Amino acid sequence: MAAEAGVTIIGLGLGSAFSPVADNSQSIILTSGLTIPVLQTVLELDIWNTNINQEMFIKLLSYVKECPRLTSLILGKYFNPQLPDVVDPKQIPSQLKQRGLRVHSIRHGDLDFETGRWKLSDRVAKMRSIMLKKMKDERQRQLNYQPRSRGSEEARQAHVLRIFPMPSNTKYVA
What we know:
Layout lengths: L1 H4 L3 E5 L4 E4 L5 E4 L4 E3 L4 E6 L6 H13 L5 E4 L18 H6 L2 E4 L3 E3 L6 E2 L2 H22 L9 H11 L11
Parallel strand pairs: 1-5, 5-6, 6-7
Antiparallel strand pairs: 2-3, 3-4, 7-8, 8-9
């Protein structure tokens, strides 16, 4: 209907409803069994929480090739899907390279059509590096934690209870 009316759809999120692409690359099959034909007016397609093997990924790229206005395929917007680490560049449709389509994964980065490898943008790589350092520092801080009092286990337990007090009506079951 949208295609017939010429209505541009900015984005379509399939969530975890995505299932495989039909063998003819002309439709996506949802987990409910319904199919979505080639999207004529969608600019961005988001697929979340999905594990995609090499064969399914190539079929998905072939489907995307048929969507004339699609500029971005995002995989794992809110979750980290399992995707092939490397895609054979010979199997990537050349039309995608010419169109400037962006294939992006939060976990993997952007797909480089020439090499078939995922590349993190400099900004994302730097953010990931900073977050890993913060996590490492926090873990080290927790391991080195010493309570203010002389370090007895009882003092440590008392300190933890002060930080996270239990409601007075809590009952312990043995």
